[in-house]
Structures are given as C-alpha cells and as structure tokens.
Design a protein that fits this description.
Layout: E1 7-17, E2 22-27, E3 50-57, E4 60-65, H1 71-75, E5 81-85
Antiparallel strand pairs: 1-2, 1-5, 2-4, 3-4
C-alpha cells in the first residue's frame, strides 16, 4: 500500500458477516454503492482482492477479500481501515474536498 498521504480512508471493517468469510464495512463514502467502483487497498489485501457484495444498510456494506473463507478469518480483519488512492477519485470542484 502506498503511503497514507496519497490515500483516502473510505471505510473500516467492523464485524464478520455469516460463515463464509464475508464481513461488514462501515462506509465513510457519500454513497456506499461507490465501493462497487473503488479500487480498495488495505494492509490485508491488494486492490484486486477486495470485492463489494452488497449494501446492508445506509452506511454499511458487505464485502469479501479473496482467501478469507471463514468467519474466524473475517473476524481477524476487524478494525482494518480501507483506503482508495487519491488519484483514483474524481476531481473535485473548487468548493469541495475529501475529508
């Protein structure tokens, strides 16, 4: 993962979901559906390993990382922060900023 200065925090893994390695992500994105398009990076995965599954509720999504195939493995990801590269996000208008 690149240094954090070039990354934008977009979510955090908060809990396992079910028994097949899926997990809940608290989304910090304006629209959780944006995770479908994000190339997510974290300390535990490469961008191509992270997969959006579905929106659970307003700011929570279900996701999966390749190789995480059971609840215990998903539990070990709790607290993992998820980032996108600043360069991968759309350009902002003059009065907007990424928080």
């Amino acid at each position: 993962m690149k240094d954090n200065a070039s990354n934008i925090l977009v979510g955090k893994i908060v809990a396992p979901q079910g028994i097949r390695g899926e997990f809940r992500v608290q989304s910090f994105a304006e629209k959780p559906e944006d995770f479908k398009e994000f190339s997510v990076v974290c300390d535990k995965c490469e961008p191509e390993q992270f997969h959006f599954v579905r929106v659970l509720k307003q700011n929570v999504i279900i996701a999966k990382i390749d190789g995480v195939n059971d609840r215990n493995s998903a539990e070990s990801l709790r607290g993992t922060e998820l980032f996108v590269l600043r360069d991968d996000l759309p350009n902002l208008k003059a009065d907007e900023y990424y928080q």
